[in-house]
Write a structure and sequence with these properties.
It is a single chain. This protein has a domain of 90 residues: 3 Solenoid (UDP N-Acetylglucosamine Acyltransferase, domain 1), CATH 2.160.10.10. The chain is built from two helices and 26 strands. It is globular. The N and C termini lie far apart (63 Å).
């Protein structure tokens, strides 16, 4: 880290631990905390991110308001968006984890997109389990991936699905209860009517 970078970081109230390496042309936003990590040339860390013991490769982007926990690698051109937490995972080249997602103990291939609200369910209460998502996958919003699980290359998961079985290459997975529209119970109607007054 050169003197210009040190001055810049001080002005934007960012903190970079001495055990970290920050490359050239790296943009680090206000309020970031980076410890024991490597931020390679041309990466972008948007405001209020915490990065611990991880590697952000060239051209990758993080944040704002994201938490990158130890043993995470964001490959070239990958994107981790707002309010994302990632732990002990690799996000492949040009893959996107845009917002409001938890990814733990996972490998995501190249060119995949993880929809808003997706949770990688890596912990069963005793052990942590691995999730592998292949290349060019689309995981729809609000999906739950119960590890251990493998999502093959070019696979698609429908929004709102909870998966506990692997998905083969090129397959479309959907796991939702069938919607039923019923008459509203009288008791609930009365509660709604009371609250409207």
């Amino acid at each position: 880290m050169n003197k210009w970078q040190e001055k810049y970081l001080k002005e934007c109230n960012a903190y970079v631990c001495v055990n970290s390496v920050v490359g050239a042309s790296v943009d680090i936003g206000v309020g970031c905390v980076i410890t024991n990590s490597t931020i390679e040339d041309g990466a972008q860390v948007l405001p209020y991110c915490v990065i611990d013991s991880s590697t952000i490769e060239s051209g990758a982007s993080v944040g704002p308001f994201s938490f990158v926990r130890p043993q995470t690698v964001l490959r070239d051109g990958s994107k981790v968006g707002a309010f994302v937490e990632i732990k002990k995972s690799t996000i492949g080249r040009n893959s996107k984890v845009p917002h409001l997602v938890y990814v733990g103990d996972a490998e995501i291939g190249e060119g995949s997109n993880i929809g808003c609200g997706t949770v990688v369910c890596n912990y069963d209460g005793v052990n942590k389990h691995k999730t592998v998502i292949g290349n060019n996958c689309f995981i729809g919003s609000n999906s739950n991936l119960i590890a251990p699980i493998n999502i093959g290359d070019n696979a698609m998961v429908a929004a709102g699905s909870t998966l506990n079985m692997s998905v083969e290459n090129g397959m479309f997975a959907i796991a939702r209860a069938r919607q039923e529209n019923r008459e509203m119970p009288e008791k609930i109607k009365q509660i709604f009517a009371k609250n409207k007054k």
